[in-house]
Specification:
Length: 340
């Protein structure tokens, strides 16, 4: 089955990319950051912590579901890469052709973008970008218009996918597969989360008769009763499958990625069990130190990736903290009352 995707899967896109002006390639090297895992999870965490009911009827449910969707997407990527185990384009190996007009720091940055190891199918950036931006467009259903949100999400996802081909770390087929996998994961994960738009049921999805209704009584909040728990658990299960495939194939790097996926799925599930889902936005005085702590845990998880156990523990702790954070203000308040 792995023969369905081969190492020689290019269709001539490299020649077209090589003809592009250098400044275009440099610009797309910056665009690719829009789907870096650290950027996406930071963006998702900010939305989850700070979104108000102007963005969604139940912003904490919406935000946690978006995180769960992207966690599922990365789990599928880990499985796909371990299963197909095909290399990236030759240009991703190096040496990098750095434009001579770039200053020193930008030269170092550019080289880091255009060199990449690991397997190439499907593209993690294309998958994660499609899943994240489409999920955000769907769950924050009170922002702008549905058509505008979806158009923006598609535009960013396609730009990120194109950037991966232009900087020559993926073939075109890799990013096309990533866009399809990302979009499919959004549909599947939102279905699991109970989104009535994908279940064909009552589109209100609310318990309160007045929540999610506009002034004319029309339904405006189909995501008000989302439950991200099943999607988090699915991500952990798929990641466990990816770990098994990676171990069988002797792919050490993919074992680590799958371990991070298991930890993220389980951490998200545990964190969600600690909140009610209707908490207000997290106060900045709590969010800032929490961001520093969770960020340090994430960095430590990757820095210590040679120790799978440490990576899994650090990742689990970071995700539990991110998802459970909305419950912390109330807990601190109760503690202060008890002490008084």
């Amino acid at each position: 089955m792995t023969g369905l995707v081969t190492a020689e899967r290019g269709i001539g896109e490299t020649a077209l990319v090589d003809a592009l002006p250098e400044f275009v390639v440099v610009a797309f090297a910056a665009v690719t950051h829009l789907a870096d895992p650290w950027f996406l999870f930071g963006l998702l965490a900010i939305g989850y912590w700070f979104a108000s009911d102007l963005a969604a009827a139940a912003p904490r449910r919406a935000g946690a579901t978006a995180i769960a969707v992207v966690t599922c997407a990365y789990a599928v990527v880990a499985l796909g890469k371990a299963w197909f185990a095909v290399p990236r384009p030759p240009g991703a190996v190096g040496p990098a052709d750095v434009p001579t007009w770039l200053p020193g720091l930008l030269s170092t940055w550019y080289e880091a973008q255009v060199l990449s190891d690991g397997f190439g199918f499907p593209s993690g950036h294309a998958t994660g970008g499609a899943a994240a931006y489409l999920a955000l467009a769907l769950v924050y259903d009170r922002v702008w218009t549905a058509r505008g949100r979806l158009a923006g999400a598609v535009a960013v996802a396609v730009a990120v996918a194109a950037s991966r081909v232009i900087i020559e770390v993926h073939f075109l087929v890799d990013v096309l597969a990533g866009l399809l996998v990302g979009g499919g994961t959004v549909v599947g994960a939102l279905w699991l989360a109970g989104d009535p738009r994908f279940r064909g049921g009552d589109s209100s999805g609310v318990d309160d008769a007045t929540d999610g209704l506009d002034a004319d009584g029309g339904v405006t909040a189909p995501t008000a009763a989302l439950d991200p728990l099943p999607a988090f658990l699915l991500a952990a299960v798929v990641s466990a499958g990816a770990a098994g495939v990676a171990v069988a194939g002797g792919h050490t790097g993919e074992v680590v990625e799958a371990g991070i996926g298991i930890a993220t799925g389980l951490g998200g599930a545990i964190g969600w069990l600690l909140v009610d889902g209707d908490e207000p936005a997290v106060p900045v005085r709590i969010a800032v130190p929490a961001l520093a702590v969770t960020g340090a845990l994430w960095v430590g998880a990757y820095a210590l990736s040679s120790s799978l156990a440490v990576t899994v523990v650090a990742t689990t702790a970071a995700v539990v903290a991110v998802v459970a954070l909305p419950a912390l203000p109330a807990l601190l308040g109760r503690t202060a009352v008890d002490r008084a």
